[in-house]
Amino acid sequence: MTVQMERKRAAQSASANGKEITLDVKSLKVYYATPTGDVRAVDDVSFHVYRGEILGLVGESGCGKTTTAMAILRMVQPPGRIVGGQVLLDGIDLVGLNESALRDVRWNTLALIPQGAMNSLNPVMRIHTQIAEAIQTHEGKQPKEKLKKRILDLLVTVGLPSRIYDMYPHELSGGMKQRVCIAMAVALHPSLIIADEPTSALDVVVQRVVGQTLLDVKQRMGVSMILIGHDMGLQAQLVDRIAVMYAGHMVEVSPVGSIFADPLHPYTQLLIESIPSIKERKPLKLTEGLTHDLRNPPPGCIFQERCPKVMDICRADKPPLRQIKPEHYVACHLYE
Amino acid sequence: MGGITWGYVLRRVGMWLLTILIGTTLIFMIPRLAPGDPVAAMIGRMQAQAGFVENSAQIIEAWRARFGLDQPLYVQYFNYLFNSLRFDFGYSLASFPGRVNEMVLNALPWTIGLLSLATVLSFIIGNTIGALMAWDRTPGILRTLLPTTLTFTSIPFFMLGILLIYVFAFGLRWLPPSGAYGRGLTQGFNLAFMSSVAYHAILPAMAIVVTSMGLWAIGMRGMMITTAGEDYMILAQAKGLKPSRIFWLYGVRNSILPQVTALALTLGAIVGGSLLVEYIFAYPGVGYLLYQGIVTSDYTLIQGIVFMLIFVTATAVLVLDLIYPLIDPRITFERG
After folding, report:
1. Which residue among B231, B240, B253 sits closest to A124, beta carbon to beta carbon?
2. Model pLDDT, residue A8
3. Which of B216, B75, B91 is nearest to B153 (CA)?
4. Burial tier of B154 (Cβ tally within 10 Å: 0-12, 13-18, 19+)
5. Whole-angstrom distance, CA of residue B48 vs CA of residue B297
6. Is residue B245 over pLDDT 50?
C-alpha cells in the first residue's frame, strides 16, 4: 500500500525535523449510516499537529471538517460512527478509550472551542459556575477563594472584564461569549484545543479580536490548536500550517507560506483564488453542486468531477498524499 | 440580573386583582341572565314537597328582602362585590343557618392539601419519566417500560379512581375507600389524625397522579429532545462533565422552564377537575361541596366556591409569575 508507506515517511520526516507531535491522526474513517448506504464523511484521513502550532483545517461546508473534529473528541453523534483509524493524542489512542477514561482526557488534554458561540453556554448558569465546573470536574473541589482568583485570571487572559464573573450568558455579546469559551478551553492547560469555526458567527471586527485572543493564548501557553474554518483570509493570518479537505479526503497539507505562495492541488488553487481582492474584480471560479455522491465515490480522484485539469488517470487511480516540497504534501496526479 | 422591581410586582398584583374582579363579575351576572327567580323556585320546591305553602307571596317578599334581591341590580352588584372581597358570601340556601364562607373554608384545606400534593408529585414524576425517555443513557429496560406508564393518561381519572377503590379498598382491603380521615378521630395536629389523613389521601392522590403524569412526561420528552440538540449540550460533553450532571443541570434544568409555565396554566383546570375525584372518594373538599351545591341548587354556595376557586387559581398563577424570573435568568422584570 503506497498510502501506508507515504504516511510512514511523513511521520519519519516529522520526527526528523525535530518537532514534537501532539496529535497524530491515522487513517481516520467516519461513516454516517443512511438507508441507502454509508455516507463516507471522513474517509482515510491522516494528519498531525506539532506541539505549539496552529493547524488550519479548511474546506467547504460538508467536506468533513467538523466531523473530523468531533471524531477526535470521540463525539460523533449517531447515525455517525468511527469505522477505523487511530487518533493519537500525546501517544494515547483516543479511539480505543472507554467512557470514563475518555471523560478524563476531555478538557484535561483536549479542549473544544465550539462552533456556535451564541448558544454554547448554558443559559441558566452563571459564567463563573460554568468555568468552575470544568475545573472542579477534573481537579476535584477547590478552595473558594483560590478558585475565584483562578477564574478571574482566566477572564483577564482573554481580555474580559472581571464584572462578567457573576453574569449570565445572555448578558454578554457574541464576542464576549466566544472569549468565555476560550477562557474555559485553556483553564486546564490542555495539549490540544480544537476551535471549530470560532469566529463564523461573529462580525468582522469581533472576528479579529477573537482571532487575536487565540494567537495570544497559543503563544502564552504553547498549546497546540486545530483551527477549523473556510475563511482562507482569516486562516492566512492565524495558522502555521494548513490542511485542505475535500469530500472527506485530505487533499493538501502545507506550511501556510508555501500553500499561499504556491498552491498545488487544483482545489486549493480555486479556494485561494476565491479570496476577494481589493485591487481587481474577478469572477468566482468554483462551481457548486457537482460533488459526487459520498455514498458511492467514483474510482480515482475524489475531485475529478469539478477539477479543471482532470486527466484520464484521475478517473482510474486515487492519488496518494505525497510530499512535493519540504513539509508540503498534495494528493494529485499532476505532480508525479 | 434576576432582581425583582416593584413596578413589575405592582403590575402583576394589578393583573391578579383584575382577574378576580372580572371573575367575580361573571359569577354575579351569569345566574341573573338565566330566567327564573331563586326564591320563587325555592317556594316551588317547598310546594312540591309539602303540597301547599301558606302566605307564599309574603314569604317570597320576606326572603327577597332577606337576601337583598329587592334592591336595584347595581346595588346588589356592589354589595356582592364588597362582600366577596371580604370573603363573606352570606348564608347557604340549602343548609340555611350555615354560612357559605365557613363551609368553604372548612373544605378548602382538604382540596388544597390533596391537590397540591398530587400536582407536585405528578409534576416531579411525570417530568422525570419524560426526561429519562429522551435521554440516550437511560438503561434499555427503563426505555421500554417508561412509555407504558403513559397509557394511563388515556384513562379518565374517575374511571381509574373506581378501579383503584375496587382493587385496593374492596379487593385487597389495604386502603380506605372513602373519606379524608378515620371516624371518631378528633381533628388536630396529632399523630393518629395526621397519619389517618395521609392514609386516606393515598388513593385519590394516586388517581390524579397516575392519570396526569403522562402529559408532563410527553411535554418533557419533547423539550429534552430539543435541548439535546443545543450547542451547550455538546460543549458540556466535551468538558467531560459527568453524565448525571449534564442530565440534571443542562438537560432537565433547561427543559423544565416551559413546563413550569404549563404548570401555571393547568392549575385552574386541576382545581376544577378535583370535583369528580372528591365525589368518587367522598372526600370532604371543595369539589365535593360544589357537587352538593349543584345538586341542591344552593346558588350562594356555588357562587362562594367559584369565587374561592378563582381566587386560589389567580393567586397560584401570581406566585408562579413572581417565582419564574428566579428560575430563568433571561426573564427580566423591567420589560414585563
Report:
1. B253
2. 44
3. B216
4. exposed
5. 15
6. yes
- Residue B232 and residue A120: Cβ atoms within 8 Å? yes
Asked if the Cβ–Cβ distance from B232 to A119 is below 8 Å, we say yes
Average pLDDT value for residue range A315-336? 90
Q: Could A119 and B231 be called an inter-chain contact, meaning their C-beta atoms sit closer than 8 Å? A: yes
**Chain B residues whose beta carbon lies within 8 Å of the beta carbon of residue A102:** 240
CA torsion A102-A104-A106-A110 (nearest 10°) is -110
- Clarify whether residues B58 and B172 are in a common domain: no
SS3 label, residue B81: helix
Contact A245, A40 (CB under 8 A): no
Contact: B242, A137; criterion CB under 8 Å: yes
Residue A248 in contact with residue A43, Cβ under 8 Å?
A: yes
Q: How distant is the Cα of A34 from the closest Cα of chain B, in angstroms?
A: 20
Nearest CB among A106, A138, A171 relative to B238 is that of A106
DSSP character string of B217-234: HHHHHHHHHHHHTSHHHH
* Together in a domain, B249 and B190: yes
- CA-nearest residue of chain B to A103? B240
pTM of the model: 0.82
pLDDT for residue B262 is more than 90: no
Which letter, b or e, does each residue of A271-310 get, where b requires 16 or more Cβ atoms within 10 Å of its Cβ?
bbeeeeeeeeeeeeeeeeeeeeebeebeebbbbbebbeeb
Interface predicted TM-score (ipTM)? 0.86
Nearest-CA distance from A79 to chain B in Å?
A: 13
Indicate if B132 and B238 belong to the same structural domain: yes
Residues of A (206-265) whose Cβ lies below 8 Å from B? none
Query: A334: distance to nearest CA of chain B, Å?
Result: 41
Q: Of B278, B297, B275, B301, which is closest to residue B98 (Cα–Cα)?
A: B301
State mean pLDDT over B251-275.
81
| Structural domain range at position B231 | 103-295
Look at B231 and A114 and tell me if their CB atoms are within 8 Å.
yes
Those of residues 145-204 in A touching chain B at CB distance below 8 A are 166-168, 170-171, 181, 184
- Whether B280 and B317 map to the same domain: the answer is no
Residue A131 sits at φ, ψ, to 5 deg, of -75, -40
Q: How many domains does chain B have?
A: 2
B329, closest residue in chain A (CA to CA) = A124
A178 contacts in chain B (CB < 8 Å): none
Regarding whether B181 and B328 lie in a shared domain, the answer is no
Let me know whether B75 and B163 are in one domain: no
One domain for residues B20 and B135: no
If asked whether residues B107 and B250 sit together in one domain, one would say: yes
Question: Which amino acid type is present at position B251?
Answer: G
Cβ neighbours around B58 below 10 Å, total:
9
Sort out which chain A residues have CB atoms less than 8 A from B225's CB and list them: none
| Nearest Cβ partner for B235 among A118, A120, A168 | A120
The CATH number for B222's domain is: 1.10.3720.10
Whole-number pLDDT of residue A328 = 93
Distances (CA, A) of A269 to A215, A266, A274, B54: 26, 5, 9, 111
What does the DSSP 8-state code read for residue B52?
-
CB contact under 8 A, A112 and B232: no
